Fold this protein.
Amino acid sequence: MNIKDGLKPTTSPRVIDLVAAAGVDVSPWAVSKKGPVKVPASNPAYCYEWAYTEPGKLVLLNLWWRDIQETESKVFTDTNLKDWAAQLRDSLQLTPEQRRAGVRRALKMDAAIAYAHENRLPVRVIVGEGEPRDLTDPDSPESSRMDLRVLDPEPWTVERYDPVSGAARIARGSFPKYVDQFDAESAAELLRRTVTGEVPVRNAKVRADALRRSEGCCEFCGKRGFQTIGGATYLETHHVLPLGEGGLDVVRNVAALCADDHRKAHHGEERDAMRIRLQAMLEKHYRR
C-alpha cells in the first residue's frame, strides 16, 4: 500500500474533535455572537471552516484525499485558494450568500497557508472524502460535503507559496534538516531552467539522500554548512562525474559540498584532483 492509500479516511469523527487533537484551541466554539452555544461542535462559525490557525504554533488545513498526489519521493497537494475564491465569486450557480461564504472561507484558508509559509509553521492536515462542489457541473451539490475525515498524524509543510497568484504546494513531512541550491531557488526559476534546458532536473530524492549522508558537513573539506533563515543547514549538491560527461543522477555520484568547494569543483585549477578524491570517498562509503 502506498502512503496516499493509507491516508484515505474511513470514519466520520466530529470536526471539533479533530481540530482539538491537532492542537488548535476550540474553546471559542462554545460562544457565538448571541452568547453561549449549546452544542459547540455544531457552531457554524467554526465547524464549516476549511482552515484553522493556532497563532505562532501551527495551521490546520482540510484537504481532499483525491487531490493528494504521491511520487517516488514525496506526498503533496498543489492548491490555489485565491483562484478558487475568484471562481466562487464569479459563479452563477450559487446564491449571493453562498458566494460570500465560499469566498470568505477560501481567502481565510489562503491567509492560513501564507501565514504558515511566512513563519515556517508546521501544518496539520485533516484528509477528507465526500462530494466536493464542481462549479462547472450544474448537477453538482450546492456545497461540498466532507463525509469521511481523518487527522494525519504526520506534520505537513507549506513547501512553496506565491503571494501574488496564491499558488501553493503543501507537502507531507517536516521542514528539511538540510537544503541545497535547488531547494533555495524559487519554483519559477526552476521551471525556467527546466524549460530552457539550462540545467536538467535533478532527482529530489538523490539530492536529499546525499545531504543526509553528509550530516551537514562538506564532504571535501569537512566544514559545516551555514544555517539558513529557516534553520536548515545549507550545502550544495554536486555531480562528481558531470551529467554532461555521462555521469548518472544517483546518490553514488553526488557529493554535498560547501559553496566554495562546489565552485572549485567546477572552476578551480584543482578540479580534476577534487573529482578523484570525491570519487574515492564515495566508493569507500558504499563499499561498507
